[in-house]
Amino acid sequence: MSKALTVTTIAATAVVGYAIYFDYKRRSSPEFRKSLKKRASKQQKLKAKKDAESKQSKLEAVKAALIEDLKENPIPTELSEREAFFMEQVATGEQMTKDDPTGAAICFYKALAVYPNPTDILGIYQKTVPEDVYELVVMMIAVYPPASISSILNKGPAAASAGLGPEEDLD
């Protein structure tokens, strides 16, 4: 019993001694502090680079999935089909939210594309759709904006609030 206690005491003393030495070096040695700062900044740069790479790869994957799905299942252009299509896509997106976030985001994107006022539906999505799915929808809009969003972006904020049409219609 006393042998185990002695070994434990020696190990604890060594750990405490190393901690005191490390703290002393950290406080007093400028080179040591510089090396710690360099190491920390290097780790931050690596983390930022990995985050940027993962975001870019995620963006490319979302873009490819969206374009492939739009080729296979195009968005209807007739007014009579658009309402049914909207309801179908929202229902499908809600069902797919937990299992397949990318598929759900594609459904919500398609519903947004046929909705007459996309800014309203985006606000609703932000409140009701899970954050990861909403982020994917926003990525899809950034990568491949639907015609309804493009027309709002081309009008500008003043024209959009006044209800004016695109500049092309004025000619």
UniProtKB/TrEMBL annotation:
InterPro entries membership: MAS20
> Biological process GO annotation list?
intracellular protein transport; protein import into mitochondrial matrix; protein targeting; tRNA import into mitochondrion
- Which membrane topology term applies here? Single-pass membrane protein
A Pfam entry, by short name: MAS20
Keywords assigned by UniProt? Answer: Membrane, Mitochondrion, Mitochondrion outer membrane, Protein transport, Transmembrane, Transmembrane helix, Transport
> Subcellular localization, per the record?
Mitochondrion outer membrane
The record's family statement is: Belongs to the Tom20 family.
Organism this protein belongs to: [Candida] subhashii
Write the protein's name.
Mitochondrial import receptor subunit TOM20
Region named Disordered: 33-53
What does the record give under GO molecular function? mitochondrion targeting sequence binding; protein transmembrane transporter activity
What GO cellular component term, any one, is given?
A: mitochondrial outer membrane translocase complex
Q: Where is the composition biased (Basic residues)?
A: 35-48
Q: Does the keyword Transmembrane apply?
A: yes
